[in-house]
Amino acid sequence: MFRTYLLPVQVAVTLFPLVTALIMVPAAVHGYRRRGRAGGWPVLVFYSFVFYLLAALLQTVMPLPAHTSAFCSTARYAESPQLEPFDFYPRLASASGGDWSVGTLAGLAVTWTTVLNALLLFPLGIYLRYYLRQRLPPATALAFATSLFFEMTQYTGLWFVYTCPYRQFNVDDLILNTGGAVLGWIVAGPVIRLLPVNDPDRERLRYGGRVTFTRRLLALVIDLAGWLITWTLTAGLLAVATDAPTGRRHALVLGSALGLVWFWLLPAFCASSPGKRAVHLRIVRPDGTRAGFFRVTMRTWTAYAPLALVWLAAAQHTRDALLPTPAGPLVPYAATLAATVLWGWPALTALLRRDSPAPHERWSGTVNQAVPDPPRLPVAGSPPMPAQTAPAVGSDPPHPAEHCPPGGGVAPTDQHSDRTSASHTRDISNGA
């Protein structure tokens, strides 16, 4: 019997790395925007929550029937829902013969089915109170909705993937699942006192102003992925609207134009690329004032020189662009050298824990700066938020809005910042 319940857990262990890979970048972006960092204890809690939800879902659909038509002909009870509340009680009484001793009940399959149904959403109640910080009424509603989704998944035969329901819709499952979640919410009260405090606002105040290597790397990954996806979709739509040769002929031009807008013009006018904006970063001078078009241009063309050389090498390989014979064969080697020097430097300094600015920052006189969130209005009935700490001297006040404001997106700050504070700003702002 227990082997049936362990099979979904084994499948969840197999699928979990794939699910983690799919949600890793969005989860990291959410972490930087919500808590000021993408790591720490809340990340472990989040991924444990994801694994639990995956395992709970698989418990409701597995094991899958091998032959749907044969199964439906032999197990037709699943087609009629069980709508009598607390039907598990007379079934327990009938199976035990009136003997309610622990030894007798422990040997009955119906006992374990009832207990496991109650325990299925027990962890959900704990997560709802500790991780999502829900009160009892909304937690109960969410637990009931989750149980109802599971039951409807069973009643529809995995949402009509199968020709008949291979598991029964049972109103007792709704009662036991929801009751187990409520019990988990109650038990979470004393349990969470033993766990680290889950306070995103406090974490954001503590970590939101730090510009780490992983934060900059995530911004770069988002920029590269966003540019490639947008370019692929644009070139594909052009090919569909015209023909494949036309799309192929204009693909290089479209990619180049989109790259100039994405990596150069947007940062030059808005002080932030889409990737940097996603993790709340912007480009400023070391004292926090606006970098200006020339400085951002110098930074962009230096930082993304390896990408431009790789793009040129690809165009040379596909014969979309032909360079003179002495220069053409050297482009891939130049791209490798530029990537090693310009992109390897931030990684090396982060590994050695040295606050040494990257070449494109030294030459352009610019740094990355974290953009603090505007203060949030407290929710009625919630404890007061900790006082908002002032930005580091030499940095800008909070952005008035997330959109690109006139004049490069960064308002100039006071010019009388002392050297110590400006040095501290450089220490936390170095990077790509």
Short précis:
The protein is mainly alpha-helical and 432 residues long.
Helix and strand arrangement:
Elements: H1 2-35, H2 41-61, H3 68-74, H4 88-96, H5 102-106, H6 109-120, H7 122-130, H8 136-155, H9 157-160, H10 171-191, H11 200-207, H12 213-241, H13 244-270, H14 274-278, E1 281-284, H15 293-303, H16 305-317, H17 331-352, H18 359-364, E2 367-370, H19 419-429
Antiparallel strand pairs: 1-2
Tell me about this structure.
This protein is mostly helical and 432 residues long. It contains 19 helices and two strands. It has helices at 2-35, 41-61, 68-74, 88-96, 102-106, 109-120, 122-130, 136-155, 157-160, 171-191, 200-207, 213-241, 244-270, 274-278, 293-303, 305-317, 331-352, 359-364, 419-429, and strands at 281-284, 367-370. The chain has a two-stranded antiparallel sheet with strand order 1-2. Helix 16 (305-317) packs antiparallel against helix 17 (331-352). The longest helix is centred in the first third of the chain and has 34 residues, at 2-35. It is elongated and about 90 Å long. The model is unreliable at 377-403 and 405-432 (pLDDT under 50).
